[in-house]
Design a protein that fits this description.
289 residues, alpha/beta, histidine biosynthesis, six-stranded parallel beta sheet, 42% helix, Rossmann fold, binds 5,10-Methenyltetrahydrofolate, 10 helices, three-stranded parallel beta sheet
């Protein structure tokens, strides 16, 4: 028995058609949702992701403003650009593509974005809101993972979820979302001895490490759900995730491919957050009665 593939492109198409209707509704009231994307430097992978984000905006009725800067851009100049976008009422979401060149402090940049426009959900305020259950933008990749898990129809409550990787952008926030869904969560990382001991007990495994073949067939339970967040480039130039897909799919129940799994869902959640930002702004502009 091979696993069912969880198709992130198909799920994205489905969700984006509803998002496009919301964007059109806002546009009809002169409030077209707008996302500003700032790219600093020439990292080729970042260029691909940013292009995908801009295209997704165009395809679904959002306005995108792409600002590209040389890698030598100073931190003060970047902070100035963010301040201008914060003050621009026609911009609803601001995304500064990571990673930034070494001379720029990413924390300072993230905290400079107005909370109402932080559609990445990377700020300390969003992180705190996520931890406490308060309203706030949730980070896009973890939200995309949750939607992919939900799409299997398998309940998370009482299930054991094992997350591999503890980044601020994926592992840590995803562990909190899984916890909120009443899963029992194990958060593993590079210093975890015997990773397989944990993953073999998991009903859900999420791999977010950035290293090919981190999760192999001997490390998974039959019937499990496997979500692959990794994006790695192989020697032949092809993309692969953190999971040994060909062999793991022979054991588990559900699995996401790379490409075509988490990547497109990250962008779908970015559209969702940007539209939500625009909807909140539109609601705030309504005359109160
Ligand atoms: N401020 C910020 N926000 C982010 O959301 C952010 C970021 N920085 N830095 C890098 C990561 C990575 N990320 C991806 C987005 C789309 C794909 C994507 O479209 N993937 C396609 C294929 C891409 C390809 O062909 O290379 C797929 O998996 O099917 C992948 C990765 C967003 N990130």
């Amino acid at each position: 028995m091979t696993a069912q593939r969880i198709d992130g492109n198909a799920l994205s198409r489905q969700l984006r058609s509803a998002l496009a209707r919301r964007a059109a509704q806002l546009a009809a009231h002169g409030q077209q949702p707008a996302l500003a994307v700032i790219l600093v430097g020439e990292d080729p992978a970042s260029a691909v992701y940013v292009r995908n984000k801009v295209r997704a905006c165009q395809d679904n009725g959002l306005r995108s403003i792409l600002e590209k800067y040389d890698a030598s851009l100073g931190e003060a100049a970047l902070l100035e650009r963010i301040a201008a976008l914060n003050a621009d009422p026609g911009v609803h979401g601001i995304l500064v593509q990571m990673p930034l060149p070494g001379h720029i402090d990413p924390h300072r940049v993230i905290e400079a974005i107005a909370p109402a426009k932080d559609v990445d959900g990377y700020s300390a305020l969003c992180a705190g809101a996520l931890m406490t259950g308060l309203e706030g933008f949730r980070p896009c990749t973890p939200c995309g993972c949750m939607k992919l898990i939900e799409s299997t129809g398998q309940p998370l409550a009482g299930r054991h979820a094992v997350v591999i990787g503890r980044s601020n952008t994926v592992g840590k926030p995803l562990a909190l979302l899984l916890l909120q869904a009443n899963a029992t969560v194990t958060l593993t990382h590079s210093a975890t001895p015997d990773l397989g001991h944990h993953t073999r007990q998991a009903d859900v495994v999420v791999a977010a490490v950035g290293r090919a073949n981190t999760l192999t067939a001997d490390m998974v339970k039959p019937g499990a759900i496997v979500i692959d967040v990794g994006i790695n480039r192989r020697a032949d130039g092809r993309l692969c995730g953190d999971v040994d897909f060909d062999r793991v799919q022979e054991v588990v129940g559900w699995i996401t491919p790379v490409p075509g799994g988490v990547g497109p869902m990250t962008i779908t959640m970015l559209l969702e957050n940007t539209i939500q930002a625009a909807e909140r702004r539109a609601a705030a502009l309504l005359p109160s009665s």
